[in-house]
Amino acid sequence: MNNDDEQQDICSLGIDEVPTGGSCSEILSSSPSSNLNVSSEMKGGRERLMSPKRVGPDEPVVPESLASLMNKELHQSSSKHAKPSLLYGQAGQSKRGEDYVFIKTDVERHLVDGVSTFDVFAIFDGHNGRAAAIYSRENVLKDVLSAFPPGLNRSQWSDYLPVALVAGFVKTDKEFQRQEQSSGTTATFVVIDGYTITVASVGDSRCVLDSQGTLTTLTVDHRLEVDEDERNRIQACGGEVGRLSTVGGAEIGPLRCWPGGLCLSRSIGDMDVGEFIVPVPYVKQIRISSLGGRLIVASDGVWDALSTEKTAKCCRGLSAELAAKAVVKEALRSRGLRDDTTCLIVDIISPNGPQPEMVKQKSSRNLLKYFQKHSRSSKKLAAGLGDGGAGSVQMLFEEGSAMLADRLGSLNGSSRGNGGDLQCAVCQASITPAEGVSVHGGKKLQGPFLCPSCKQKQDAMEGRRLP
């Protein structure tokens, strides 16, 4: 483990290793009776504030609409305000030991307009073993960063991030499957760059933003039970979708993909299920106002027990570390320990705004009263970025297609590396013009290009078999 990496196995009941060096992380362990692991850290930076624009005495002032003012404020958040502080906490209860959390703050990037940092938070919920979750935790960030071309400024880097996330997820999946392991994992990967939040996800580990009382879901559940488009895609690729059958022929349980019986349509790993279970993530990128907000990232052990609205309500008014612990406790109280149950809370706080209220540990009875007192019954739930956002959230990007041509097609030019050679858009392998195959199939001269092995993977994922 690197000194600046903070990776904790949320499945273990004890913490064997604590990050050292520049981090001021404090790892807290709860009482043995609760078996909850909690950690928190606060970080932040400052930038020069810009002077307000002055209007001349003879210049007429034209009033702006409220929507225009809010939109302008969102666009200028990163330049008008210092970088937000992050306060985060995590908690979990283990059943099978397959949930893993990844946290890395102050990740440096060297761009043409200078060196800057961003932060990453992720949850990997493994199934059929731990191998896929562990491998993904150790490799997704590296694979995403390797997908960026050189020569970008900060704005271009942010615009390119959704493409890099797709390439990184597919590369991680491809490399893991070489190990011939049968396990798989969900992945919910959050990148925070100032007031811009980008989330890439496969599976059903949900991420929700609570901003000024409005809830915005930043992921989709890739469950066959709820996604008809994904069911149709798998069937078109040659897979079968159905429920378990009893001896008498009655169907029980959720819809599953056969062979394999997986309930998810997207994941990393799962090589024994079929290539049509794809690692291509749903990606949503938003910008929040300088008022900040709270991110709730959790595995399905939480979401199967609590609704999105109840999850947010039960932890409002609590510090990040207590909020994560409260969510896990409420999930266990509601449904019991049926699965690994993990929650990660990230508070994005304006350095010029009020700090979140810190409360002392309370008994279960007093804690419930606190939740009821501090939660508002009139909060609006926004499944997407609808009108309920009241201008506090701005959509920048959203795409969920499972087709690589749709997701990598925005790459410019011919995906050339530093030396001018062609470069595979997924694995970054150097390829000759004769070897490179367009991601667009028959359009041989239109990039981006894939190496033969990545092209073979694309064909398999999309239901095409090579002769």
UniProtKB/TrEMBL annotation:
CDD domains reported for this sequence: PP2Cc
PPM-type phosphatase domain residues: 80-348
Low complexity composition-biased segments: 23-41
Keywords from the UniProt entry: Hydrolase, Magnesium, Manganese, Metal-binding, Protein phosphatase
UniProt cross-references to SUPFAM superfamilies, sorted A to Z: PP2C-like
Region ranges (Disordered): 22-59
Reaction(s) the record says it catalyses: O-phospho-L-seryl-[protein] + H2O = L-seryl-[protein] + phosphate; O-phospho-L-threonyl-[protein] + H2O = L-threonyl-[protein] + phosphate
The UniProt record lists the keyword Magnesium: yes
Coiled-coil zones: none
Region forming the signal peptide: none
SMART domains the UniProt entry points to: PP2C_SIG, PP2Cc
Entry keyword annotation includes Protein biosynthesis: no
EC number(s) from the headed UniProt entry: 3.1.3.16
Cofactor(s) needed: Mn(2+); Mg(2+)
Xref: InterPro entries: PP2C (IPR015655), PPM-type-like_dom_sf (IPR036457), PPM-type_phosphatase-like_dom (IPR001932)
GO molecular function terms noted in the UniProt entry: metal ion binding; protein serine/threonine phosphatase activity
UniProt record similarity statement: Belongs to the PP2C family.
The name this protein goes by in its record: protein-serine/threonine phosphatase
Species, as recorded: Riccia sorocarpa
